[in-house]
Every structure is written in C-alpha cells, then in structure tokens.
Amino acid sequence: MDVRYRSTRNSEVTVTASQAILKGLADDGGLFVPDHLPKLSVSMEELKGMTYQETAYAVMKEFLTDFTEEELKNCIQKAYDSKFDTEEIAPLVKVDGTYFIELFHGATIAFKDMALSILPHLLTTSAKKNHVKNEIVILTATSGDTGKAAMAGFANVEGTRIIVFYPKNGVSKVQEMQMVTQTGDNVDVVAIHGNFDNAQSGVKAMFEDKKLAEELDKHGYQFSSANSINIGRLVPQVVYYVYAYAKLLDNEEIQPGEQINVVVPTGNFGNILAAYYAKNMGVPIAKLICASNENKVLFDFFQTGVYDRKDREFKLTTSPSMDILISSNLERLIYQIAGCDDKKNAELMQALKSEGVYEITDAMKAGLKDFAAGYATEAQTAETIHDVYKKTGYVMDTHTAVAAHVCQEYQENSGDKTKCVVASTASPYKFAGSVMAAIDEKYASVDEFDLLKELSQVSNTEMPNAIKEILNANILHTLECDVDKMEDTVKAILEL
Ligand SMILES: *Cc1c(COP(=O)(O)O)cnc(C)c1O
C-alpha cells in the first residue's frame, strides 16, 4: 500500500514521500508523518542474511513508496560505500553483556552520517521526480554533528547549496574544526552568538516565512532541510534497528522472536523515533529507553506527561549534541499518541510556543507505555567512560556513555533482564578532550588536539580519517552572526 505523508498540524493535505523530502517542513509548520506506519514485508529469517545495503532497501521501500526500485537502490549504493570504514557499515559490538550498535563509521564519525550520506541522493532524486527547476538551499541548524555530516553529504552536489548555523561556544573543538574546514563551492557555515535552540528556532522561522519563500523563488531558489524534521533523515535511521536485530539473531545472541530493549542517547528525538518506527514495523523491541544528559526536559516529560522548557537553564555539557531543550521530533510522537489528532497536536505545540509548556492527556500517557527514560549527570557520564574502559578496554564517547549509564541504571532499578542494544552515536575521537579526561584526570588540562594520538594508544584503535583530515586542513569559514541576524546572513550569502 502506498504511504502518503501529512502534516502533524493538518491531516487534510497529503503529499508523496518525495514531495515531503523536498519540502522538509509542512507549510503550516508541522512535521510530515506517514499516514500509516508500514510493516516489514520480508521475514527476520531473510533479513538475517542481508547486507546493510539490502536491509536498507527492505526497510526504506516500505516508506518511500513513490521511489522506483532502481531509484532507491541507486541512492543506497551511492550512500553506503567506502565512505564508511567498514563493510558492515554499522557493526554490532558486545561489551560486558550489552550490545553497542556503532553508528559512527561514516565520513564524519557521528551517527548523523547514517542518514546524511543518503539524504542528498534522496533529495536530488525527489527534485527530478517532481520537475523542480530551482536550486535547493539546505538550511540547517546543528548542535555539532548534523552540520558537518550535512556539509560533507551535500558538498558539490549539483543543484544544491547548504548553509549551516552552529552555536559559537556550544560545540567541541574537533566538531568546530570539522565544520570550518569543509571544502565545496556550495557550502557555507555560520557561528551564531546563541545556543542550539536559537539556531533551530531561527531556521524554522525562515522555513515558515512565506514572503521569504517568494523572494527565494524569484531568484531561482527554494529551501529544504537536512535536520531530522525531514522525513528523509528519519527513514534511513529505521534501517539500523532492523539490522541490529537481524545481526543479533544471526550471531545467535537471541532466539527468533525474542524481544530486546534499545537505549538511545537523545537530543532532538529523531534517533529514538526511528526505533519506535522500527518497532511498529514488526521488530521485537520491548522498551524504547530515552537517555538524556543534564538537559533532561525529555526525562521529566516521560515521568510527568508535562513538557516544560520554561525556567530551565540551558546547560552546556560534555555531550553537546544532546544539549537541546526543544526536541522537534517529539511532535511526531505526540501526534501519534493523540490518535493522529492534528487539532490536539497543533494546540499543544501552540502552547509550547506561547507558554513554553504543555501537558498531555491521560489517554495519551497510555500511548507512552513502551517508553522508559533516564538521564546521566556529567559525573555519571565520565564515570561510565572510566569504568567501562577499566573493566573491558572499550572506549566510548560521551553521548554513548550517557546511554550506557541510563541502560545500567534501568536494568538495576527495574530488574528487567531483556537484552539491551545501545545506540553508539559518536566516535570517541570526536570528543577526545572529555573522553580522555574521564579515563584519567591527568588529561583534563591538555589541549584536545594533543590527546588524539594518546586516545589511539589507549583505545588501541586507528585514528579515523575524519580526524587525520582536520589536523592539516585550512580554515575556510569564519562567518559569525547574532541570533536576530540569521535571515540577513542567508540573504547576503545568496546575494538576494
Ligand atoms: C545528534 C546526536 C544525538 C541526538 O540524536 P537525536 O536524533 O537528535 O535525538 C546523540 N548523539 C550524537 C553523537 C549526535 O550527534
């Protein structure tokens, strides 16, 4: 059955998958969601023997029903190739009884590569299918990892330009260097004097601005999004949950039909929502465990049913890609648990915008029964990196450590013996300063760049290419702007 996409704030209009990918955000400011959540049409027995690319096709064809087999396979082939440093694409590693699905083997060594290496191909294919003549301008807010992964994905892709906004003091040194050294004639990156929520709100406001859209159109441009509000980001992320389950079966770590729990270090709620979609496709996932850092607005939401971002201090943590107080993709879950009630969802989102808070109904709370949530303090995050390393030699990054802590705490408190898969979202090299300081405090005062070699020795792993590249690269981007000047900056870049 064809899947069509409609806005979480207005169910009346539906569009095809390719149109939803092109637009990014719906005209009413809502997010595109599938009109029904599709099921897998191949068995786990078949999936067991599949490569990552084959699994990607089996999953994505169920969502992107207006793509031909040839189009979709072509996108998959271009995305999941030697840009990844392992043929497995997403290896599943067992550490001390817990499984880590390592999602950081792509070009920019964070899990954003899993979707952003395919999004440019999905987008240009969508443009062709819909006879789009305009150049597509990808506008992206980043808490550190999306920006680089999107720039790497879109660099020199014909018919596209990309402009990235990141919080000036809100990303790691490695993350910043990765972005400001990005080559490509069509890429721009701007440091804003604000935090990630400011960047995201500024970008969303530009998407919703009809006058700006007209002006762009006159100059032969249109916006689209590489953030996880784009359904073209979300769908490729469903793949690795299916793949992880099939690998567990193939490795005889679980029995056919056995349920697993997944633990996801969460910021914008895209990754864990993909796990929810995988569960709905038929993957035997019991609990979806949402892990937050000290910006724990989601933890509080799952405890109380109240989403409250008022009077909350935005904290800069050692897991900066999760420093978020407005989790965009939660809206897709809210819509779903409201029984796909667009009016109810729109009302709650309006309340969030105007009052900074909303509360879901009891009926909606019942829809969250498969979710659990926890959070890690900065000390607990560091302790987890330290303890796991001392016990096993495995070095994990700060984001993954947040999830590993929450996983352990969940198991202790609940007594639930279900096997757990932790989404491992970044390479430790990307956050070498914090990771090494956690392993031994003697590293705490050493410059992050001086620790990269040391990390290679300590973890007994080879330094990834993504790191080697930035050690000798030139700084190409130095643009900065105030939060209220984001639109002017875009206009200047596009020479409107
Ligand atoms: C983006 C990111 C996250 C958060 O993922 P969401 O899909 O935004 O919830 C976690 N860890 C890392 C390393 C990231 O880059």
From TrEMBL:
The record's section on InterPro entries has:
Thr_synth_N, Thr_synth_N_sf, Thr_synthase-like, TrpB-like_PALP, TrpB-like_PALP_sf
| Keywords tagged on the record | Lyase, Pyridoxal phosphate
Any GO MF annotation of the entry: threonine synthase activity
One Pfam family this chain carries? Thr_synth_N
**Could you tell me the superkingdom of the organism this chain comes from?**
Bacteria
Query: EC number(s) per UniProt?
Result: 4.2.3.1
Query: Which cofactors does this gene product need?
Result: pyridoxal 5'-phosphate
Q: What are the Threonine synthase N-terminal domain coordinates in residue numbering?
A: 4-80
Residues annotated as domain Tryptophan synthase beta chain-like PALP: 102-422
Looking up PANTHER family in the UniProt record yields:
THREONINE SYNTHASE-LIKE 1
Q: What is stated as this protein's family in its record?
A: Belongs to the threonine synthase family.
Official protein name in the record = Threonine synthase
Recorded source organism is Dorea ammoniilytica
